């Protein structure tokens, strides 16, 4: 179950030591031979872990610290980084309207797109759960977009679908809604990107479906005996029983949504247009860092993103006590 | 009460009232059949909408370039396979097969690296008792939630200093260092579900950790390894930002960056070629998906992998 990951994240978050040692529990060096064995165990453990450790220190932790340093500098890859204190952050929030706009459209994309995507995922999962037979085909079909949605091919298709006289424009015109292409339209390009995200509802849907299959049927039968209608059953049975899965999906989808890059980059040909409406946070970060070579500024942007994501995760973890129930938990 | 069957959380629009008043039992069966038909029709319609972009892409590859923007219908007026022939010649002096070969090479190396490093790390986390395992495990879980953009700039600087830009090293090396924590976690969960009796028996027979890992654990975690391999292949195949940053020479391009070349140069004139390459680039993944869908979908369902 996906709740295992939620629990692992929760455990790691609370800095509780996860139960890794199985039944035997931590070794207590009572016998003299054990201490030698412990030392050997530690050596073996780190040997197994060596590739991961090198990657963690050299490609994650080290770079994180270095980019924190760069965030306070001006650096263009060719001259030495120059310490400028908080200038990057000040500039970001006071002198860079492109940055502010980028934050705004990214927040709209994340905060509007993710709930719609999850609602679609949950709705379709409930529909699929209505019957067992035949639902495997549908499940696979709905999952396919999640697998390819971030690819360049799909971005090209999406742009073609929503361009002037493309399939979407034609369909809407047929129903008397002549709004033209979405791609060049300042008001419609962001909804188009959100639709692309919603189209990939399959991955959270599959996780919801696995969660729904574990809800005991007796609970619904008991609710029916008490005269509960469909809405009441959803509120009192489905939602609480599924809350840990909802929490997990919400956390991952929010974090992923902040990182949308390839589709926006391809659809706007790398420009973030029209009028900056697809200039998502990561697109702008890429432009600043790798097109303008303002690596200090881009590092500062990246750290703001990390802090925002950390705050969102912290809020979610804080509020989960009031709405997330875990099995075997009598809250 | 009319709702006496045990369907779960039936959406309201499936509630259908019948005009006649047959016997309760017959009525229930009839209602059930009608509900199933409605269920099927709704899902089939939804499937058609969800899969429409892919169907459109496939059909559009047979449209001559002149029909784009002229013929709004799905079906081409003069179907042709010229797009495919044109596309085989390649772009910027590089034949199409070269991009496929590049993508395949990177993806296969990524799969090998990910399996090797993730399985080793997962075994250490799940089975070896050593100091610091708790905090390291927490760190590994933490990297799952870390936006990776915070490391791309320092990583780029590092690979640039190492003179590895415009090689495949920056794309492949991290995979050999288990940077994709999802797979480490997936395999850890799998190993934890294997009864410890197996390793303990091996231990009594004198096998050390390495022996236990290779002879007992590795054969048992094959399903987790297959799931990791397929996902690594697909994600690497689709990856755009990595090659965009690190690969500069067209003859070294993997497909996603090569696609951008078509997309930029031919946005007005040769749309047919762009569409055909887009479809060809997706084809291996779609085939993978159709063949391995159970592994993929069940892997997502049990472990909560992202898409």
How would you characterize this protein structure?
Chain B: Keywords: Cell membrane, Membrane, Transmembrane, Transmembrane helix, Transport. Chain B: It is found in: Cell membrane. Chain B: This is ABC transporter permease subunit. Chain B: It comes from Agromyces kandeliae. The complex is a heterodimer of chains A (331) and B (307). Chain A is mainly alpha-helical and 331 residues long. Chain A has one domain (89-323): Orthogonal Bundle (MetI-like fold). Helix content of chain A is 70%, strand content 1%. Chain A has a two-stranded antiparallel sheet with strand order 1-2. Chain B starts with 23 loop residues before the first helix and ends with a helix. The model of chain B is unreliable at 1-20 (pLDDT under 50).
Integer count of domains of chain A: 1
CATH secondary-structure class of chain A: Mainly Alpha
State the major sheet of chain B: none
Task: Assign a percent range to the helix content of chain A.
Answer: 55-70%
Categorize the overall geometry of chain A. Answer: globular
CATH class of the largest domain in chain B: Mainly Alpha
The CATH architecture of chain A would be Orthogonal Bundle
CATH architectural designation of the largest domain in chain B = Orthogonal Bundle
The helix count of chain A comes to 14
Number of separate strands of chain B:
0
Proportion of helical residues of chain B: 55-70%
Tell me the span between the first and last alpha carbons of chain A. Answer: 21 Å
| Mean pLDDT across all amino acids of chain B | 84
Largest interface: A-B, 127 and 117 residues
Q: If you compute it from the alpha carbons, what radius of gyration of chain B comes out, rounded to the nearest whole angstrom?
A: 26 Å
What structural class is derived from the secondary structure elements of chain B?
mainly alpha
Shape category of chain B? flat
Q: What is the arithmetic mean of pLDDT of chain A?
A: 86
Keywords (chain A): Cell membrane, Membrane, Transmembrane, Transmembrane helix, Transport
Family (chain A): Belongs to the binding-protein-dependent transport system permease family.
Organism (chain A): Agromyces kandeliae
Domain ABC transmembrane type-1 (chain A): 103-316
């Amino acid at each position: 179950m996906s709740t295992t990951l939620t629990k692992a994240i929760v455990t790691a978050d609370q800095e509780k030591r996860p139960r890794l040692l199985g039944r035997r529990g931590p070794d207590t060096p009572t016998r003299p031979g054990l201490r030698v064995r412990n030392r050997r165990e530690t050596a073996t453990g780190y040997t197994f872990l060596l590739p991961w450790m090198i990657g963690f220190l050299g490609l994650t932790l080290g770079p994180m610290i270095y980019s924190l340093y760069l965030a306070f500098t001006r650096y263009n890859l060719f001259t030495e980084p120059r310490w400028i204190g908080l200038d990057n952050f000040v500039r970001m929030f006071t002198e860079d309207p492109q940055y502010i706009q980028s934050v705004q459209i990214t927040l709209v994309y994340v905060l509007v797109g993710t709930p719609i995507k999850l609602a679609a995922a949950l709705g379709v999962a409930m529909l699929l759960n209505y019957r067992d037979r035949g639902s495997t085909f549908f499940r696979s079909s709905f999952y396919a977009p999640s697998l390819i949605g971030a690819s360049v091919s799909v971005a090209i298709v999406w742009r073609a679908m929503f361009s002037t006289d493309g399939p979407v424009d034609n369909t809407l015109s047929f129903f008397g809604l002549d709004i033209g292409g979405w791609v060049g339209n300042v008001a419609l390009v962001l909804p188009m990107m959100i639709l692309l995200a919603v189209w990939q509802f399959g991955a959270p849907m599959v996780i919801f479906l696995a969660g729904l299959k574990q809800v005991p049927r007796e609970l619904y039968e008991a609710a029916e005996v008490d005269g509960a209608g469909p809405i009441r059953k959803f509120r009192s049975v489905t939602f609480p029983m599924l809350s840990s899965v909802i929490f997990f999906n919400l956390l991952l989808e929010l974090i992923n949504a902040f990182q949308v890059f390839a589709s926006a980059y391809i659809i706007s040909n790398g420009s973030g247009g029209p009028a900056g409406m697809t200039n998502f946070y990561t697109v702008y970060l890429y432009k600043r860092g790798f097109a303008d070579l303002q690596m200090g500024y881009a590092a500062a942007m990246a750290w703001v993103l990390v802090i925002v994501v950390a705050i969102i995760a912290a809020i979610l973890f804080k509020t989960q006590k009031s709405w997330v129930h875990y099995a075997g938990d009598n809250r | 009460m009319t709702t006496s069957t045990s369907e779960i959380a039936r959406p309201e629009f499936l509630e259908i009232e019948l005009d006649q008043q047959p016997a309760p039992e017959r009525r229930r069966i009839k209602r059930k059949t009608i509900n199933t038909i409605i269920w099927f029709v709704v899902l089939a319609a939804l499937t058609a909408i969800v899969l429409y972009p892919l169907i459109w892409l496939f059909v559009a590859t047979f449209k001559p370039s002149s029909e784009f923007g002229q013929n709004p219908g799905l079906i081409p007026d003069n179907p042709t396979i010229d797009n495919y022939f044109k596309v085989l010649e390649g772009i910027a002096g590089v034949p199409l097969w070269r991009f496929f070969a590049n993508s395949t090479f990177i993806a296969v190396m990524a799969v090998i690296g990910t399996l090797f490093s993730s399985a080793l790390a997962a075994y250490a986390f799940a089975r070896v008792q050593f100091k610091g395992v708790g905090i390291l495990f927490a760190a590994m879980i933490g990297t799952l939630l870390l936006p990776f953009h915070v490391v791309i700039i320092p990583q780029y600087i590092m690979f640039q200093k190492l003179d590895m830009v415009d090689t495949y090293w920056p794309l492949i090396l991290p995979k050999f260092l288990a940077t994709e924590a999802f797979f480490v976690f997936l395999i850890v969960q799998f190993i934890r579900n294997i009864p410890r009796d197996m390793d303990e028996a091996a231990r009594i027979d004198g096998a050390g950790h390495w022996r236990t890992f290779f002879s007992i654990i590795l054969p048992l975690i094959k399903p987790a390894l297959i799931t990791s391999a397929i996902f690594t292949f697909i994600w690497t195949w689709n990856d755009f930002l990595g090659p965009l940053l690190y690969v500069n020479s067209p003859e070294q391009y993997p497909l996603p960056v090569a696609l951008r070349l078509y997309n930029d140069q031919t946005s007005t004139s040769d749309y047919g070629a762009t569409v055909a390459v887009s479809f060809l680039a997706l084809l291996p993944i779609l085939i993978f998906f159709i063949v391995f869908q159970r592994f993929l979908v069940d892997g997502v369902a049990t472990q909560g992998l992202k898409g």
